[in-house]
Design a protein that fits this description.
alpha/beta; 24% strand; 17 strands; Spore Coat Polysaccharide Biosynthesis Protein SpsA, Chain A; single chain; three-stranded mixed β-sheet
Length: 334
């Protein structure tokens, strides 16, 4: 059986997308990664690489009239979010896939993904929780990081509903119980049949939940006195810079402890370094994790505290029009 994955990214994120591919290759031969390239440079690089288990399409291939009509109203990140469900549907239908799982491009697989599919079983849809101690009312219970859809009535019903909702409204702001493409997932368990909420804590280890775990053993988390293999870590809020022959990793919204850096972030840094050297023709010899300064930490905590208040949301998103638009900028050109 071939396990089908899909994702999308542009040349600003190509180092992360290729790292995702390499990490999948390290844990399995039986996968295929379908990619929509969101700019010409990304498409050109991936076509020239001609990787064995990767198919790349130019974004124009999936852009129907509905997407093109809303494209001028969305920023770069918002348009990627909007296009995500359309992309999944396109690959399932046009490549006649019996299933497809969307994965964010900033994931790294640390071990086999087979436990995910053992848990999915005969389900038509699978979604992952944030696994936070308390559900965040703003960003929702579930995370758009790994989403599985089977090519059957129930899977396609959920996928097309999500696609239509994202076309109608998908912005990087909190509004009327919505946020981006993500809050719509909260409706899946009550609205659709055969939805599996994945329970494996090793699926979706991420900055917003990693403080709950012990990372002293490579490739596993210790949670409630039990060691659980990490299937993938979600490197949300990371940014890379190249300075001379050094690759610098910056965390935007979180700070890491020793074992998290040693057993999670350093392996990812090394993987990204290898991607740059192998595929993007850089000469990177050194790696470093750069800590946030006191001002960035203070601003981050301030934003987390005030983000729950409607007045702050109004000022932040409406008055000052501050919106997420991706962390990476032109890294492969550095």
């Amino acid at each position: 059986m071939v396990y089908n994955f899909c994702t999308l990214f542009d040349s600003n994120y190509i180092h992360k997308g290729l790292a995702l591919y390499e990490s999948l290759s390290a844990v399995s031969d039986n996968f295929h990664l379908y990619v929509v390239a969101f700019d010409d440079e990304c498409y050109k690089i991936l076509k020239e690489l001609d990787l064995q288990n990767l198919t790349v399409l130019d974004q124009a291939v999936i852009e129907n009239d509905e997407l093109l009509n809303v494209k001028p109203t969305r920023n770069r990140a918002e348009y990627c979010w909007t296009a995500g469900p359309t992309m999944i549907y396109y690959f399932i239908i046009n490549y006649n896939l019996d299933h497809c799982a969307y994965v964010d491009s900033d994931l790294m697989f640390f071990s086999s993904f087979l436990p995910i599919y053992e848990e999915i079983g005969e389900s038509s849809i699978a979604i992952t929780e944030h696994f936070t101690e308390k559900i965040d009312d703003l960003t929702g219970r579930f995370c758009v990081q790994y989403l599985y859809f089977r090519n059957d009535k129930d899977g396609l019903e959920a996928l097309t509903w999500w696609r239509d909702q994202c076309i109608n409204w998908c912005f990087a702001r909190f509004e009327d119980g919505k946020y981006g493409d993500q809050k719509y997932l909260d409706y899946f368990p009550e609205k659709f049949n055969k939805v599996k909420i994945l329970e494996n804590r090793g699926v979706g280890v991420a900055p917003w939940n990693d403080f709950q775990y012990d990372f002293s053993n490579y490739g596993a988390i210790k949670f409630h006195q039990k060691f659980i293999p990490i299937v993938f870590y979600h490197f949300h809020g990371t940014k890379f810079e190249i300075r001379n022959n050094s690759l610098i990793l910056k965390t935007i919204t979180y700070d890491n402890k020793f074992y998290l850096n040693k057993n999670i972030f350093t392996p990812y840094l090394n993987l990204i370094k290898d991607v740059y050297n192998k595929y993007l023709f850089k000469d990177i010899r050194y790696i470093n994790i750069e800590k946030r300064n006191i001002f960035k930490r203070f601003f981050s905590q301030l934003k987390k505290y005030f983000r729950k208040y409607s007045l702050f949301q109004f000022l932040y998103f409406k008055v000052f029009n501050i919106k997420y638009n991706g962390y990476e900028q032109n890294n492969n050109k550095s």
